[in-house]
Amino acid sequence: MPTDLLFRDDAYLQECSATVTAINERGGIVTDRTVFYATGGGQPGDTGTMKTADGSEIIIATTVYGEDKSDIVHVPAENSALPKIGDTVTLVLDWQKRLQRMRIHTALHLLTTVLPYPVTGGSIGDGDGRLDFDIPDAGLDKDEIAAELNRRIDQHADVDYRWISDAELEANPGLVKTMSVKPPMGTGRVRLVEIAGLDLQPCGGTHVRNTSDIGKVSVTAIEKKGKINRRVRITLA
Question: What pLDDT, in 10s, does the model give residues 106-153?
Fold first, then answer.
């Protein structure tokens, strides 16, 4: 059975109990459910701890997808003692790190509404992030972009999710803004992230519940990466 991705329905869950279903050949730990986000879409895998029934803790250094993309693999720190298949464990996020990533990720979605151009790349860090745009006119002003981005954040718009079929997404290609990262497809349905009145796009990542939870952001740099490509970097203020 594929891992139940609890963060898809509630990104604010900070821990959960789970059952160990597999240990892979590299020592990665698979469980039946998880609150840990796996590396993908420019967002790093979550870190945290796995608590065992005897009270010991395993440090989780990162989280990735298994080979068939249906399992989530919790990668322990080197030389960690491993649980046994069938053990009940408690998964606990490094919440402050996750929250910073959620705030930046949602801010980057809003940035695509301030700069409505094709997105050719991006990444999410711990309190900062960037997007690459194909922009015909290079006349960009950091302060103006930041002011407009913060104005949209200050609208206190709710962030919600809904699902459409793969076929519906294929019939509405304009929903996809990222040229380099394809929406998570193949299960028959795709999750859309909607920022009320501002944005709608497919995304499997984690986000805040309301734009007010982002806080103020700054545009720290605009870098030339090609004839029409510009990299815009933002950070939490």
Answer: 999 999 999 999 999 999 999 999 999 998 766 789 999 999 999 999
Q: How many residues does the chain have?
A: 237
> 95-114 and 142-153 are packed helices; what angle lies between their axes, rounded to 10 degrees?
110
On the 0-12 / 13-18 / 19+ scale of CB atoms within 10 A, 171 is: exposed
Cα-atom radius of gyration of the chain, to the nearest Å? 19
Domains of the chain in sequence order: 4-93 (2.40.30.130), 98-236 (3.30.980.10)
For the whole prediction, is pTM greater than 0.90? yes
pLDDT band at 187 (very low <50, low <70, confident <90, very high): low
Residue 65 identity: Y
